[in-house]
Amino acid sequence: ELANRILELLQSDALGKLEIAQRLGKSKPTRYLNDLVRKMLETGLVEYTIPGKPNSRLQKYRLARDKKNTR
């Protein structure tokens, strides 16, 4: 499943949508990828690297940290 592949990519590094799309073999983010990342944000699987600016061009995504084990 695509969500699992995205989670695997984010285990090693924070990535932007374009970087995620390229590592999945796409030239740019698709609507499906955008929707999937949004759902992953809503469910708490991933989080923004710049939480205060969700529309920043520098925005990247990382695996959500466990709230109990903040590093």
Question: How would you describe the overall organization of this protein?
Answer:
- The chain has 71 residues and is mainly alpha-helical.
- 44% of the residues lie in helices and 8% in strands.
- The protein has three helices and two strands, in the order αααββ.
- It has helices at 2-12, 17-23, 31-43; strands spanning 46-48, 61-63.
- It has a two-stranded antiparallel ribbon.
- The longest helix is centred in the middle third of the chain and has 13 residues, at 31-43.
- The protein is globular, with a radius of gyration of 12 Å.
- The protein starts with a helix and ends in an 8-residue tail after the last strand.
- The model has no long low-confidence stretch (mean pLDDT 92).
Radius of gyration from CA coordinates? 12 Å
Q: What percent strand?
A: 5-15%
List low-confidence stretches: none
Distance between the termini: 29 Å
- What portion of residues is helical? 40-55%
Biggest beta sheet attributes: 2 strands, antiparallel
Number of helices: 3
Query: Which strand order do you get reading across the main beta sheet?
Result: 1-2
How many β strands by DSSP?
2
Tell me the structural class.
Answer: mainly alpha
Mean pLDDT: 92
- Oligomeric state of this protein: single chain
The dominant shape is globular
SSE order = HHHEE
